[in-house]
Amino acid sequence: MFGVTAFMVEQRTHELSVRRALGAGPVELMTMLLRESLKPVMVGSLCGLFVSAVGSRVLQSLLFGVSARDPLAFAGAVVVLVVAASTAVLVPARRASQMNPTQLLKLG
To answer: How far apart are CA 96 and CA 101, in angstroms?
Structure first.
């Protein structure tokens, strides 16, 4: 996830440089990148919850000590995924938002 996010940010350096030159601050750029990168994670989490809730009946016989529809297990999986995705997005977004606009324009 880190590699994909870093590549996405690298591809958008020209756009980021223009936004930065027009007055967008580092926090605004980082917020924008985080929001856009975490949308697919949230959609995927919701789809995964739906599929796992439907498929849990099939796996009922393989589970020991936990019910097939344990809300704590579902919530824990989503939390771990979102935290990992946020961490993977945060590093490249922070790096891009703290660059000097003139450096970004030269790179873009």
So the answer is: 10
